[in-house]
Design a protein that fits this description.
Blueprint (H helix, E strand, L loop, with lengths): L40 H29 L1 H4 L6 E5 L7 E6 L10 E7 L2 E6 L10 E3 L4 E3 L6 E2 L5 E3 L8 E7 L16 E2 L8 E10 L5 E2 L11 H5 L3
């Protein structure tokens, strides 16, 4: 007599996959390869990265383009202000004056330098952060008391943090009838003192910035360089 093998399956049935009750049915995997509306996590994150990069690029390039294209807008309109006769500014001296009048640059302090055969009008606004600089007659130089910026008698940087020389004002000389007399000086914005009548009037015009070679450029804000890579990235 054959021994039982302990198999409870009904006689005559064959073995195979279990077909009884299950606690959890396996989840059937579906392929989305042919579904155009389905977005995988990888595609979603890639789209977010591209969109974020575009926004960041625009945030950087748009202001730069605006600053680059606004030179003509930022150039102030010339408004001539009479600051007195030429005799008020003796040869060989630098004279400090406060500008008054209807000009938008009124209430500015200007150093009028009459030396080397030409007159220059130098703004006392430091090119670093805009503090008022002081003129020292003994050293014939300008010093900013805020952060130690130092300039020579022409306003060119010799020490400290200023990114460019002191700004200047355009000037010209006219006679009692208002006609221009004399000629321009050796550098932009200056006026030659050769043959000037001491009673002729000195007029102050709009300000401008210069580089280390005394080449004129549009008026820049304090802290803004006029040359080099940083001048293109300002104010970033």
């Amino acid at each position: 007599m054959a021994e039982s093998q302990g198999n409870d399956a009904p006689q005559g049935s064959s073995g195979g996959q279990y077909a009884g009750p299950r606690a959890i049915d396996p989840v059937q995997e579906h392929s989305h390869d042919h579904d155009p509306d389905f977005i995988t996590r990888t595609k979603f994150l890639s789209g977010v990265a591209v969109a974020g990069g575009a926004v960041l690029t625009a945030a950087i390039l748009v202001p730069i383009a605006g600053f680059a294209g606004a030179d003509a807008v930022k150039t102030p309109k010339a408004q001539w202000v009479d600051i007195g006769p030429v005799s008020n500014f003796p040869d060989g001296q630098t004279t400090s004056i406060a500008v008054s009048g209807q000009s938008e640059w009124s209430d500015a302090r200007v150093f009028v330098r009459n030396k080397d055969g030409q007159i220059l009008a130098i703004w006392n606004r430091c090119a670093h952060l805009g503090c008022p600089v002081e003129y020292f007659k003994g050293g014939d130089n300008f010093v900013c008391p805020c952060h130690g910026g130092a300039y020579n008698s022409l306003g060119l940087v010799v020490a400290g943090p200023p990114p460019r020389p002191l700004d200047r004002f355009n000037i010209k000389v006219v006679n009692s009838g208002g006609a221009t007399v004399g000629s321009v000086g050796k550098v932009h914005g200056s006026w030659s003192t050769a043959g000037l009548n001491p009673s002729a009037r000195l007029l102050l015009g709009s300000p401008f910035s210069i580089d280390s070679n005394q080449s004129a450029t549009r008026l820049h804000d304090p802290g803004e360089p006029v040359t080099g890579v940083l001048s293109n990235l300002y104010p970033f």
